[in-house]
Write a structure and sequence with these properties.
Order of helices and strands: EHEHEHEHEHEHEHH
Helix content: 40-55%
Strand order of the largest sheet: 3-2-1-4-5-6-7
Largest sheet: 7 strands, parallel
Strand content: 5-15%
């Protein structure tokens, strides 16, 4: 079995690579930082690891990445690359936000579509898109980031139902971790995500507190949630 992971140089992407390697999966590690993925490659023993240095924030690089690996038998695509930018929307840098949209949305869209077509043709394969609990709500002071994660979540859900209606053996999952407030480590989040994707779970939410919070969220007025989110993010930014 073989998995391709974008944003594999650190955090959840790196820990997903470690966990899959423990399970005997071969890996294609994709990131901008060559030194980090090569260092990770040295750590992963007894599996085949290939490193590809590219910037998925560039549309042409996404197409080039797919062309590079399209003849390989890839069983799982993990769209993990992403980043955020905090601050008032009127003050945050536009170019940085547009780059965020390219990485968090456009790259996920392109790679999901290209690999899904291949997976659908052979009727097997798993796509794991990394969103966030931010995908369930608006996010004042982190507005563009929240909006991108809403896109990833809803796109993944829609594709899931299209595949289900066809009786396809291709599965798509979306990981929605919360902020570091629930005692959930990156390693635990990675394990929960991979295990959930392998079981065909649609929305994967690590941690009990986050699940409870999202459940009760549906009963609260939207303006109250906005005020709550603003206050939380403001305190976080001031630390």
């Amino acid at each position: 079995m073989k998995a391709l992971i974008t944003g594999a140089s650190s955090g959840i992407g790196r820990d997903m690579a470690r966990y899959l390697a423990q399970m005997g999966w071969d890996l294609i590690l994709v990131a901008r930082r060559e030194d980090r993925i090569k260092e990770l490659k040295k750590e992963l023993k007894n599996v085949e690891v290939r490193c590809i240095v590219t910037d998925v924030g560039r549309k042409e690089d996404c197409y080039a990445l797919y062309e590079t690996v399209k003849d390989e038998t890839i069983d799982m695509l993990i769209n993990n690359a992403g980043f955020g930018l905090a601050g008032e929307f009127v003050k945050t840098d536009l170019d940085t936000e547009l780059n965020m949209i390219d990485v968090n949305v456009t790259a996920v869209h392109i790679l999901t579509k290209l690999f899904l077509r291949k997976f659908a043709k052979r009727d097997s394969g798993i796509i794991l898109n990394v969103a966030s609990s931010a995908g369930f709500m608006p996010g004042p002071l982190l507005s563009t980031y929240y909006a991108t994660k809403n896109y990833v979540l809803r796109l993944s859900e829609a594709i899931y139902e299209e595949l289900r209606q066809k009786g396809s053996h291709v599965h798509i999952s979306v990981l929605c971790p919360g902020p570091v407030m629930d005692g959930i480590s990156s390693e635990m989040c990675a394990r929960t995500a991979i295990d959930g994707a392998l079981k065909g779970k649609l929305v994967i939410i690590p941690g009990g507190m986050m699940k409870v919070g999202l459940f009760f969220r549906r009963f609260a007025p939207e303006k109250f949630l906005l005020k709550l989110a603003y206050g939380f993010q403001k305190r976080k930014n001031e630390k």
